[in-house]
Protein 1
Amino acid sequence: MNLSFISYAGPGTWRLSRASAVVRWYGLKAVTPIQKKVVAAKVGVVRHMVQLMATLPLANVESCTRDPRLVAAGKSFLRRALEALRDLGRYILAKGFGEPVAEYGAVGPALYRVGVLPPRLAQLVAKMGSYRNRLIYGYQEVTAEELFTLLTRRGGDLLEVLEGILTWLRAHPGMVERRL
């Protein structure tokens, strides 16, 4: 096997010339820099979906259920925000820590385990994952009251978790790729 494209770049670091990436090995885990453009795209989706949720004319539960288009739009905005936030967490875990996470509910605990989020925010992420699964797989299980509460009062939770992740990224610039 020809491995001439791999060269030693320092303690625990190998340079892959073909891929022009630096890979650090910790045990059997490959850790690569977190790309700013990927983070920015996912952050943009979360923020945009929360903004769209705030524009829905939801004065009360009855107004939420009166127009089925509002229900559909609200569910879509919420689901897309939840998925983008979860995908951001998964991306950081996979790239920054070499820890792939498949289940939505496992993202929060994994982010806590590696030190990205404090316990309270990690629990919020786990709870958000269960709401996403209910929105996708059990449409009847999300009541109008729950959807109204999620759309009108819980958008701040999404932004709080997002800010927790961004705070960690700012505090660990060595984990983030320096160029776009």
Protein 2
Amino acid sequence: MPTFVALLRAVNVGGTGKLPMADLKAMCVAEGFGEVETYIASGNVVFTADRSAREAGEALEKRLRAYAGKPVGVFIRTAEEIADVLDANPFADTPLNWTYTIFLNDAPPADTLETVLGRMDEASRKLSCDPRNRLRRAVVHWACPDLPCKQMALRRANPASALKSAA
């Protein structure tokens, strides 16, 4: 039986989307998932299931919608896919608080990173953009070396919106 990692979007972030991990675990068990483990109050859960990643994700999204009264995005990856993302990380030598990994359900157009960078002014691009930033299938690896730079670049570029609109 395959092992899956479910990453829930906007759960337990900044006081919104509150979901006790005990409730998330109970939903997974009720859905028939096995070996269910949650990770702190992150909205991340690992489980086994005798179904496809798509079927597991759809089932969990349905339960979360019933619980929250609104859609909750779920990104499902196999344990092997998560290991592949870690292996492909171009920032293994970079402090963790400078790096981001953004999971998408589908790969956006190949020029998405260029679109995001194009929304930044030249100073922001020079400060925030590591040449190793990359889009790989449905994963974005991104590094930004300091908080003021990150805040300025994100305010100007809003990469999440750019990625969403490009997808």
Protein 3
Amino acid sequence: MGHEAWSDDAPAAPEPDPYQPGTAPLGEGRPGPMAYGVDPVAKVKPPAICLIIFGALFGFLSLCGAGQGIAMLAGALPGPQVPPDAPPEVAEMMQQWYTLAPIMNVVTGFMGVVTCVLAFVAGIRLLSMRGATLAKVASVLIMIPVGGCCCLGIPLGIWVLVTLGKPEVAAALREADDYARG
């Protein structure tokens, strides 16, 4: 009578359905990403798409600003001019600033391009639920006022950081990274 427990004919315990919220086995007692009842991919998709758009749009504008600075340094574009009726001390200060303006255009333009390329790549990686660290770094960098994109970079960076900090999103990103590592 007690041999049924040892036989191969005994019914096996039902396997959890990985497509039901909260039932996907992850090990170490971590809740699955769907345990919270919300699809983490749906939460990550809007900020990821905004990172891509931000990176493409402001990357192009930053590149234009750097190009303008290079053209001004090369003499192809005239730089700002000091008004002839400016007082001498103001004219001297303006001339010093106008000498630095093209250099600042080049520096901030290239810094903006690097930041926007990182944001663009981070957005693409987030769409595939990868690269949480890159997205966090890019989010912090787009909040730094380099060039003229800080008015949109600050709320977007905060939105991405808040989204990535949600438990269900963090669990899904950890799971995707663990799967990718093998």
